[in-house]
Amino acid sequence: MEHIETSSVTSTPLFEELDVNKLSNECQQLLQTLPREKWWDGCHLYLYHGFWFRPQALQGILLFQKHFQAEEDDVFIITVPKSGTTWLKNFRISKTFLDQDSSQPIYHMNCCHHLLKIPSVGLCMCRNPVDRFISLWHFVNLNRPEPLKQDSLEAGLEMMCREVEGYGPFWRHVLGYWKLSKERPGKVLFLKYEDLKEDIIPHLKSLAEFLGIPFSEEEERQGMMEEIAKLCSLDSLRNREVNVNGKHKFIGIKNSSFFRKGEVGGWVNNVNPSMVEKIENLIEEKLSGSGLSFKMSCNYTKTKLGDNQAST
User: Are 40 and 155 in contact (CB under 8 A)?
Assistant: First the structure.
């Protein structure tokens, strides 16, 4: 069996170009055959089966496809980066900790289901694409040795509109899981970040029921849902010691960089009007007929974009 220097791959700073010689021979050979583009952060993305990945992520996918065997009771948390991943994982872990009868393994991935065909339970969390991108831009900027140029933000939005982005295109990823949640409602739960921000309690209850660890009437009377919601609030997570001073054990970046404002609609302070119009038209085009919609801000909502309706 070929030896893969996984330690040297994971030790490469997250937002610096990887020396491809540290990858497996299989991955190196594959990269030579794939289209690539330089992303707004300076690193290269490679197009593999219709989705864009960094080389490190692509090697992980190849290993997963070759070696991982999912069990029926596995739980997969599936998100595009900066869509509330940490938040969702903490809700899930908190309920498991309080429910001693639950021992479901939990995995997290960013990949589309087209590449990783998993028979188990999936929790898909999505966020409106512009807030998500702005959050990602700030996250990358915090963790680079040199700050990003300001024009890279608009360049990144332009690339998003061209459907060139890590783990994307966003639309194909999200709509794939949206469709699966309708086809297999007992296997795939589709959640939206903005809905959880607006009123977490009913979604926390639905999440527990979906996972087979529902809150009992006694737990509801005792306020356990409210307790978990408070324990896992963004402010609570942000101020924990491990997130104030700790570092990610695999990629070495500060845990504090995973937490920013978490606002709905904060993108309006970062995007110029012409780009706003371009993005809104793109959202309407991509979601048309799907039934999926996104809340774009606290005061302005494009509702039922999937049915070509809008309201304010």
Answer: yes
For 225-248, the pLDDT digits (tens) are 898 888 877 777 776 776 666 666
Give CA 50 to chain center in angstroms: 18
Per the structure block, which two tokens stand in for 268?
A: 């309006």
Angle at 180 between CA 176 and CA 181, to 5 degrees: 120
Which is catalytic among the residues 114, 173, 203, 248? 114
113 is catalytic: no
β-bridge partners, 75: 106, 121
- H helices of 232-296, in order, are 234-238, 241-245, 273-287
Tokens matching residue 9: 């791959």
Among 54, 46, 49, CA closest to 13: 54
Angle at 300 between CA 297 and CA 301, to 5 degrees: 85
Q: Which residues of 175-206 are buried (b: 16+ CB within 10 A; e: fewer)?
A: bebbbbbeeeeeebbbbbbbebbeebeebbee
pLDDT in tens, 47-103: 999 999 999 889 988 988 888 887 777 888 888 888 888 777 777 666 654 554 555
